[in-house]
Please model this.
Amino acid sequence: MALIVQKYGGSSVADSEKIKNVAGRIAKAKDEGNQVVVVVSAMGDTTDELIRMAQQVSEQPDERELDVLLSTGELISSTLLAMALESLGYKAVSLTGAQAGIQTDSSYSRARILCVDPQRIVAELEKGNIVIVAGFQGVTQDMDITTLGRGGSDTTAVALAASLNAEVCQIYTDVEGVYTADPRLVSEATKLKQIDYEEMLELASYGAKVIHPRAVELGQLYNMPILVASSFSDSPGTLICKEASMEVRNKVRGIAHDTNVAKITIIGVPDHPGIAAAIFEPLARANISVDTIVQNASIGNITDLTFTVAQSDLVKAMSIVGPVIKSIGAKRCVTDSTLAKVSIVGTGMQNTPGYAARMFRALYEQGINIQLITTSEIRITCIIAEDRIKDAVQALHKAFELEIA
Amino acid sequence: MALIVQKYGGSSVADSEKIKNVAGRIAKAKDEGNQVVVVVSAMGDTTDELIRMAQQVSEQPDERELDVLLSTGELISSTLLAMALESLGYKAVSLTGAQAGIQTDSSYSRARILCVDPQRIVAELEKGNIVIVAGFQGVTQDMDITTLGRGGSDTTAVALAASLNAEVCQIYTDVEGVYTADPRLVSEATKLKQIDYEEMLELASYGAKVIHPRAVELGQLYNMPILVASSFSDSPGTLICKEASMEVRNKVRGIAHDTNVAKITIIGVPDHPGIAAAIFEPLARANISVDTIVQNASIGNITDLTFTVAQSDLVKAMSIVGPVIKSIGAKRCVTDSTLAKVSIVGTGMQNTPGYAARMFRALYEQGINIQLITTSEIRITCIIAEDRIKDAVQALHKAFELEIA
Model:
């Protein structure tokens, strides 16, 4: 008898009909002889609705209170799912994050899981129950409720799977798996049967919105296989695991892209120690994530510094960078909010030269100008004009022969 | 520095504006130098909405799951109220029933409070916090969430007040206090400054929907003064306490009425032991509350048996009584669903004869027929036609000179 952990996202439980559909899928896994633990997100837009309610009573809601408020979304969906299973004739019990033993630090709204004490889950499984755990939440040592922030329910699922020593963690969502590129941009995009944790991390961070990177990292740490599949079909999905099959010849596994990119260039920066800190520390304090950073070679102790942020953070970032420019004696600042990122990802790339050249040529042949380049061991990313992103993804998909992956 | 417990009902926190209004009232109590603990109900119709959601996924929702689901209503209102207080510049913290130390038995949907361990509340008060407690809920020894059923938040408030040794428990609602009769029926009805626990129990049970009897009983047990007042005005309200002022000359304190009354009469019942049990046990199992029961003197071992139920329970009650009639060999059954109850209440009545006679005469002078009579030590109740209830309440209010109470 295998123990499996399943996770269903908010769109999979958005209304009572969808909850019944999910209950049917869980029942099937139980009928197949498995012990089943299910992690569930809040229904549809519940979390946004709760945030809206908080903003109506307070301009800056207290984070501790907000976490208790938001945690109710998953309590609602988990109890409804347990009820739906019981009405199908299955024994089921819902557990809060606290009851499920998800212990976190007290960083409200972005708590980190410290440990999982699954004894209540184990006891309920032994009674023959299907266990439904409210995702996205945990509890501090002082019994205060926390939420895990972005990707919280994915992280809950993988953490439980690891602590229960489950056979697999199945993440059910509204996409069918991980593709070689976004199928809306590339009609020839194919679904990957397997992908390596590292590759998935690069794809996930760079815009393939299937599973949160934090959950993939946790899966990698505990070597927990994660299946990503659709809750609306029986299509097999993509397995994220330690090593993609040795059969995989193609060394580029996928093309990721992200159109939420803005560039800030500070011109005439005096090139001496401490300048970078003076610019980036205030941005970090404002919780603005800075992505690519490029500094040109210095000419006469004056240099230019370029970095990217999310388009949605541009106005806030500029309100911080403006005063800093003056204080460090830089000349001026220009911005461009019409950019996008395109990346090729694959573990095979790290030992094989020539991928970068092939990428640049494919973009050049489409007449696409590359504004910035950044690389990791298993990824090459180019920043280009946003209106050319579709051409770029299609050209790269073809250049690396991913349609026959 | 006094410690006071306040409770705000669902209509007082129905939307964000009302929550802000309540926050202002709590702030005022704090500014007056008090330590303040607040118990809050779910916003407006939240509980009904959650029940509707449960019914959409299950015809008979599991009670344990339903309790977790319903408990979210009070978590939402308590966190929003804490946020609203903080945005006014006050230190506030919300606590779940479990965090507030409300320990109950495991009778889901109607749990009883076993004990209150207020150490977390005390610790938060010592930090200078206003403490907002989610009403209506508690936790079992196994850390399972329960709800307290009808009157739950009132009961939470009085239980906390007792365990914290508070100076007073203030129940804020959408009425201004306890009146000598329903002001919608009797324009001369006056608000009582004080009322005895026993009197309030009789008034509350018999239709004056101001505070739940269960909370009054608890108040009486711990001798905790309970103020009932409006959350929408600064009117002083009614204090429920051990003994109404000695100044109170008038021995009838109020007229209660209830128009939700149906009568069932079983005709030709064989009069032997076990018959009453045969009739009332199945009704009790179906959770139908039977009120007045009258059995006529037996003639030739055959008697008639009459009892009342809520009009809303009549159809269900008849579906149970029908088969029982046959099995016990009774003749037939007649029902009347157009009835109402009217009661006079007052502790002074118990030692003074003549109240019943005065009541019957006042009704007779209005040409109102009395169908059934039932009494307690401090109450006399008559069942009359529903369409005469206004006349009856007005006539009794006048007969007992309550307009000058």
About this structure: Chain B has two domains: 3-174, 255-404. Chain B touches chain A through 40 residues (CB under 8 Å). Chain B has a mean pLDDT of 90. Residues 67 and 402 of chain B are 43 Å apart (CA to CA).
